[in-house]
Amino acid sequence: xxxxxxxxxxxxxxxxxxxxxxxxxxxxxxxxxxxxxxxxxxxxxxxxxxxxxxxxxxxxxxxxxxxxxxxxxxxxxxxxxxxxxxxxxxxxxxxxxxxxxxxxxxxxxxxxxxxxxxxxxxxxxxxxxxxxxxxxx
Length: 137
What we know:
Blueprint: E1 14-24, H1 29-36, E2 42-44, E3 55-61, H2 69-80, H3 84-92, E4 96-104, H4 115-124, E5 127-133
Parallel strand pairs: 4-5
Antiparallel strand pairs: 1-3, 1-4, 2-3
Helix pairs in contact: 2-4
InterPro entries: DUF4279
Organism: Streptomyces decoyicus
Protein name: DUF4279 domain-containing protein
């Protein structure tokens, strides 16, 4: 008697969020906001977190805005791409600048990008950080 093998159906990451992250130990959030012409969704002032003394400025889209990953990515890239040169300038000045994608996942989960999304991410010219959370939700 043959045993039937079930191929698991790939699942996508859940409760994703996408963020443009700018970090520095000497971060001045008001200056960054003015320089970029964007309103951050999160600011952590330098020294306020004992685990990481850096300050953090984020332009973030999460499930409170939309649960659709592509819409989250589009929202952040639509804000970031028009100020790409300024973002690259910040990186050259020593700021840590990256695009972060976070979500809950497990070992068989995937996250899919269209070719257009990859093109837009690469146009930004900064690092991409995939931050899977494998804790049970």
